[in-house]
Amino acid sequence: MVAEVSSGTKLTTRDRAAAILVVVFAQQIEDVVSLTWDHVEVKPTKVAIALGKTVIEIPPPLDEPFLLLAAAAASNTAAQPNSNWVFPGYGPGRHIRAASLRERLHRLFSPRAARLGTLHELAKLAPIAIIADALGYSTKTIERHARGAATTYAEYVATRRGNPGSPTSGTTNS
């Protein structure tokens, strides 16, 4: 999925950038559409984005759509002559509607399922507070995903060990 959204041809450059934010950084569509260029730092060799309290550098090839969008931002449309939106809409001064972006991304993947899957995986890899700060989530939200990830893993281990009566499997031995 990451390869398709970073370099695939099924999405526009703008949709690829949005998809990367959802698939890799677990961002909600409503937060993606409200991003401005004040949140994104684009230099010839570096793209960084502030999603939460932390600025995250986006490595190549994931940075490509942002580099292309930044270059194109200088040539705004008549409806958006001086737009600061990363994802401008069709009406003057507005960002794209979340429902419109969600529908466009849904042609390739389910944005909600991708975001939740990413949160689930990230919750296994780093401390809750760091993930929450970096991605702009509450610690309670990330903690909920961490518990879900631990439960899933514990159930998997219990099943592999042939111990379906373990406390994590939801059944008891009689």
Structure characterization notes:
With 174 residues, the chain is mainly alpha-helical. The chain has helices spanning 2-7, 13-23, 29-33, 64-73, 98-105, 111-125, 128-135, 139-160; strands at 40-43, 46-50, 55-58. The protein has a three-stranded antiparallel beta sheet with strand order 1-2-3, with helices on one face.
Structural class: mainly alpha
Major beta sheet, strand line-up: 1-2-3
Give the assembly state of these chains: single chain
Topology, number of strands: 3
The helix/strand order is HHHEEEHHHHH
Q: Which residue ranges are poorly predicted, with pLDDT under 50 across at least 5 consecutive positions?
A: 168-174
Q: Give the N-terminus to C-terminus distance in angstroms.
A: 44 Å
Biggest sheet statistics = 3 strands, antiparallel
Number of helices: 8
Q: Give the radius of gyration.
A: 19 Å
Mean pLDDT: 83
Large-scale geometry: globular
Which tags fit this structure?
single chain; 174 residues; mainly alpha; three-stranded antiparallel β-sheet; 8 helices
